[in-house]
Design a protein that fits this description.
With 153 residues, the protein is α+β, with helices and mostly antiparallel strands. Helix content is 37%, strand content 24%.
Amino acid sequence: MRNWAVTPSGGAAARVGREVATALDQWGYRPKDDQPQQVVELLLRSAAQDGGRRVSLHLADDEDRNQVMLLALSHRQDMPTGDDDQVLRDAEHMRALAALGPRDVGVETTPDGRRWWAGLDLPHPGRVHELDERRPRVFARGPGKLEGPPIPA
């Protein structure tokens, strides 16, 4: 899991988008285009329009399913529930996100701000299986990024 907290600006969204692309590459994901970076930038711009002093982006993955989750938070404490104008802006952002091709997208208003998310299916080259054949599967891999250590039997 990786996290970024930034002051809303056009440059910050592009910078975090590049850093997410680098993190995904380090984790072994090989997107065929710049979709993850475009999604990050749109999520951060959407969160920044809420008017908070900072926004954050959270990146997590599920290696077994080749999926990545991106979550942007607006961190605005006095976030009002959606009025008609806000609902229209949210729908516009959701259409723009969906056009980028993620598996799923969403937005939720909470007392501490708005949460924008997108789930991506990304290619992740297979591991070398001959190493796995020499030891039981439970010992073939360590805990995932979102898992705890195995519990001894």
